[in-house]
Write a structure and sequence with these properties.
heterodimer; A: mainly alpha; MetI-like fold; two-stranded antiparallel ribbon; 2 strands; B: alpha/beta; Rossmann fold; eight-stranded mixed sheet; four-stranded antiparallel sheet; 12 strands; 20% strand; transmembrane helix (chain A); transmembrane (chain A); Peptide/nickel transport system permease protein (chain A)
C-alpha cells in the first residue's frame, strides 16, 4: 500500500475536492467500477459490501446460490407445488401400483407419468414428488435450525473462553474436547429413544412428530457447537491482543461492550462460514439418522427416511432410490460450495486449499 | 571526575511542587509472574519490566520517556492508563489514587486520561466506520455534545486535519498517517487532560512523522494537554517534550528538562544514547566521541545487582555491583536534573545539535 502524500495540511485545512483514497488497499481491483460514484458522495464501502461484490464474480458460488434459493423456495411453497400436482405427501394413489407384483408402480422408471412427475412410492402409492418437496422441508428446517442453535451456543462459548482465559477457558476447552471426541452417531442412536420416552405425551403410544424433530435438532446441535466454539475461541485469542481492544478499555468499555461491539463484528466472517458449512453437514447427519431409524419415521416425509425405504426396493425400482439420492447430493453440494464461496469472498487473502 | 557529591535523599517525583502534578507515579512496579507446572502452577520468577520508578507530569507539560527496546517504557504507559495492573507503587491522577481502581469506579479519571497507540493498523477496529470509532468514547461515557455526536465527531476530524466528509469511511481506506490522526481524534473525544502517547509515530513514514508530531504539538498548545510521550527516537522527543526521562531495564536512570539533558547529560547510558543519534555530516568533520555499547540489555528476569547498567558501562567499578545508585540531584546541576550513577560526569554537548524534525511542509 502506498503511503499517500497527504493533501491535508496539518493546520486543519481540508476539503480537497479529489478523493484522497480512491485506491483502496487490498481490493483495488473491485473499486474500478465504483470510483466514479465515490467522487460525488463520500460513503465508505463496508467490508460486507466488498465481500458481496467478490461473491457475485464467482460463478460456482452464484450457481450454488441459485440452486439453494430454488430448494428453499420449493420447501416454503411445498403446499402450492403439491396442489399443482394434485397429490399430497400422504395421499395414496392405489390405482398407480400393481398389487399383483407386490405393489410396484405401473409403468417404467418408478411410474413416472404426467400424473406423478417423479413416480410413485412402491408399496404405499404415495406421490414421490410430493414426498420429496415435503421431505425437503424437514431436511432444511432441521439443518438450518440446528446450525443456528449450534452457532449461537458455539459463538457465546467461544467468545467467553477466548476473552476471559484462565480457568474459564480451561473448563470450556476441556468440555469442547470431550464433545468433539464423542462418537456422535452412536450416542444419538442410543440416546434418542431415551429422551423421547422421557418427554412422550402421546397417550396412544405413537410418536409425536414435533417432539421427534425437536429431539433430533437438539441432538445434532449438541454435538455441532463445539466446532464453532473452538473456531471462535481461536479468533478471539488473536483479536483480543489487538490495540483497538485496549483502546476501548481505556475509553471505559466493559466486557459486554468489548465482546459484542468490538470483537463480534470482526468475527462475522468465520461465524458465517461456520454456519454455511454446518447446514449441509447437519442435513447429512439428519438424513443418516433418519436412514438408521432414529430420526423422522415414515409416513412423515423426510429424505433420509425416503432413502432408507428406497434401499429395500432398489433392485427392482432403482429410480425410487436414485431421485432423492441425487437431490440430496445436489443440495448438500450446493450448500457446501456456497459456503466455500462465502469464505473466499469474506477473506480474499486465504488460500484455496 | 567523581568529585560531585550527592545531595542526600531527594527522591524523584517528590519535588516541592508535587501537589501540582496532574499525574504522579511513585515507585511503580510491574512484574509479570513466570509460572511453571501444568495443573498446579507455581511462580518461579518474575519479569521485572518496571521496577520502582517515580515521576510526575504537570498540567500542560510533556514528559518524554526514552530508552531502548525492552526497557519498560510501554509497560509504564500501560500501567499508568491501567491497562496493566501495577504490582507495586501508586499512580495518582488529578489527586485521585487510581492504582487499583476498577474500570467502573474511575470513569472520570478515564475520561481525563487517554492514550494514543503505536500501531495505527491495529488500534482502529476494522469493522467500525471512522464516525463510530470517534463517537464510541462519547457514547460509552454518556456525553451528549451540543449538536449531537455526529457533529462533534466531524468537528474532531477537522481538528486533526481530516476531511469531515470521511465520517462514513472504514479505516482500511486510509493511510497510516491518516489512521493515526483518527486515533488522535478518538483520544480527544473525551477532552482529556493527559494523553499517554505510546510511540505514536514510530510506525509511520518519516515524512508523516513530522506532520503527526506537529499536530500533537498544535493540540497541546490549543487544549493545554499534558503528554506522557513514549518514544525511542531522541530527536522526536527533543522536539516534543519539555522534560525527558531516560529508562534502562525498568528504572529511570536520568531525568531532566530538555535543554539540560541534551546538552549536559550525566549518566553514561544517556551519553551512549545521545552519541548514537545519527547525524547528517557531509564533511565528515565531526570529532564527537562515539560510544558503542557492547552486548545486549540484561534479562529483566534476573537483573544485575547494584547498578543495572554496570554490565555494559565502561566506568563500572566494584561499588557499582554492590550498591544501587539512587536517583538524586547532583550538586551544580540544573534544578530538577536527577541521575542515578555513582560516577556521573557532566559532558558538554555530547550529541551534535539535532535539527528537530522540519515543520511539515505540506503547503
Amino acid at each position: 500500500m502506498t503511503q499517500q502524500p497527504q493533501q491535508i495540511s496539518p493546520t486543519g485545512e481540508s476539503g480537497t475536492e479529489e478523493n484522497p483514497v480512491a485506491e483502496t488497499t487490498a481490493t483495488a481491483d473491485s473499486t474500478a467500477t465504483e470510483v466514479t460514484s465515490t467522487n460525488t458522495a463520500v460513503v465508505g464501502r463496508s467490508p460486507a459490501r466488498m465481500a458481496w461484490t467478490r461473491l457475485k464474480r464467482d460463478k460456482v458460488s452464484m450457481v450454488s446460490l441459485v440452486l439453494t434459493v430454488i430448494f428453499i423456495l420449493a420447501a416454503i411453497f411445498a403446499p402450492v407445488l403439491t396442489a399443482l400436482g394434485g397429490w399430497g405427501p400422504i395421499t395414496s394413489d392405489v390405482k398407480s401400483i400393481n398389487p399383483d407384483i407386490g405393489n410396484y408402480p405401473y409403468g417404467h422408471f418408478g411410474g413416472i407419468s404426467a400424473k406423478h412427475w417423479l413416480g410413485v412410492e412402491p408399496g404405499t402409492g404415495f406421490d414421490l414428488f410430493a414426498r420429496i418437496v415435503y421431505g425437503l422441508r424437514t431436511s432444511l428446517a432441521v439443518g438450518l435450525i440446528s446450525a443456528l442453535l449450534s452457532t449461537v451456543v458455539g459463538v457465546v462459548v467461544g467468545l467467553a473462553a477466548g476473552y476471559f482465559g484462565g480457568w474459564i477457558d480451561n473448563l470450556l476447552s476441556r468440555i469442547m474436547d470431550v464433545v468433539l471426541a464423542f462418537p456422535q452417531l452412536l450416542f444419538i442412536i442410543a440416546l434418542t429413544p431415551v429422551i423421547q420416552n422421557a418427554f412422550q405425551t402421546d397417550q396412544h403410544g405413537g410418536t409425536d412428530e414435533n417432539l421427534r424433530l425437536a429431539v433430533l435438532i437438539l441432538n445434532i446441535s449438541a454435538f455441532a457447537w463445539a466446532y464453532t466454539a473452538r473456531l471462535v475461541r481461536g479468533q478471539v485469542l488473536s483479536l483480543r491482543e489487538r490495540e483497538f481492544v485496549d483502546a476501548s478499555r481505556i475509553m471505559g468499555a466493559g466486557w459486554v461492550h468489548i465482546l459484542f461491539r468490538q470483537l463480534l463484528p470482526n468475527l462475522w466472517a468465520p461465524i458465517l462460514i461456520a454456519f454455511a458449512l454446518a447446514v449441509p453437514a447437519n442435513i447429512t447427519t439428519e438424513a443418516a439418522l433418519s436412514y438408521l431409524g432414529v430420526g423422522v419415521v415414515p409416513p412423515n416425509p423426510d429424505w433420509g427416511a425416503l432413502l432408507s425405504q428406497a434401499s429395500e426396493y432398489f433392485l427392482i425400482d432403482p429410480t425410487y432410490l436414485f431421485i432423492p439420492g441425487v437431490l440430496l447430493l445436489v443440495l448438500v453440494l450446493a450448500l457446501n460450495l456456497l459456503g466455500d464461496g462465502v469464505r473466499d469472498a469474506l477473506d480474499p487473502r486465504a488460500n484455496r486449499s | 571526575m567523581s568529585t560531585t557529591k550527592n545531595i542526600p535523599a531527594q527522591k524523584a517525583g517528590e519535588s516541592s511542587v508535587s501537589s501540582q502534578n496532574l499525574l504522579e507515579v511513585e515507585n511503580l512496579e510491574v512484574h509479570f509472574p513466570i509460572r511453571q507446572g501444568i495443573v498446579f502452577q507455581r511462580q518461579v520468577g518474575a519479569v521485572r519490566a518496571v521496577d520502582g520508578i517515580s515521576f510526575g507530569v504537570k498540567p500542560g507539560e510533556s514528559l518524554g520517556l526514552v530508552g531502548e527496546s525492552g526497557c519498560g517504557k510501554s509497560t509504564t504507559g500501560r500501567a499508568v492508563t491501567r491497562l496493566l495492573e501495577p504490582t507495586g507503587g501508586t499512580v495518582r491522577f488529578d489527586g485521585e489514587d487510581i492504582t487499583h481502581k476498577k474500570v467502573a469506579s474511575m470513569r472520570t479519571a478515564r475520561q481525563n486520561l487517554q492514550m494514543i497507540f503505536q500501531d495505527p493498523y491495529s488500534s482502529l477496529n476494522p469493522r467500525h466506520t471512522v464516525g463510530t470509532i470517534i463517537e464510541t468514547p462519547m457514547k460509552l461515557n454518556g456525553i451528549n455534545p451540543e449538536g449531537g455526536h455526529k457533529r462533534r465527531a466531524q468537528e474532531l476530524l477537522e481538528i486533526v486535519g481530516l476531511n469531515p466528509e470521511h465520517y462514513n469511511r472504514y479505516p482500511n481506506e486510509f493511510s497510516g498517517g491518516q489512521r493515526q490522526r483518527i486515533g488522535i481524534a478518538r483520544a480527544l473525544a473525551l477532552k482529556p487532560k493527559l494523553i499517554v502517547a505510546d510511540e505514536p509515530v514510530s510506525a509511520l513514514d518519516v515524512s508523516i512523522q513530522a506532520q503527526v508530531v506537529n499536530l500533537l504539538q498544535d493540540l497541546q498548545r490549543e487544549f493545554g494537554l499534558a503528554f506522557l510521550f513514549i518514544a525511542h527516537d531522541l530527536a522526536v522527543v527533543r522536539h516534543f517534550s519539555e522534560r525527558v526521562a531516560v529508562m534502562y531495564l525498568g528504572k529511570i536512570v536520568e531525568i531532566a528538562d530538555r535543554e539540560t539533558l541534551y546538552s549536559r547529560p550525566q549518566h553514561p547510558y544517556t551519553h551512549a544514547l545521545l552519541s548514537a543519534v545519527p547525524e547528517v555530516d557531509p564533511d565528515g568533520a565531526s570529532n564527537r566521541e562515539r560510544i558503542r555499547l557492547t552486548g545486549d540489555v540484561p534479562s529483566p528476569i534476573n537483573p544485575p545487582s547494584g547498578c543495572r547498567f554496570r554490565t555494559r558501562c565502561w566506568k563500572a567499578q566494584d561499588i557499582c555491583a554492590s550498591q544501587e545508585p539512587p536517583l538524586v540531584q547532583l550538586i551544580g546541576s540544573a534544578d530538577g536534573h536527577q541521575a542515578a550513577c555513582h560516577f556521573p560526569e557532566v559532558k558538554q554537548v555530547v550529541a551534535a545539535e539535532v535539527t528537530p524534525p522540519a515543520p511539515a511542509s505540506a503547503e
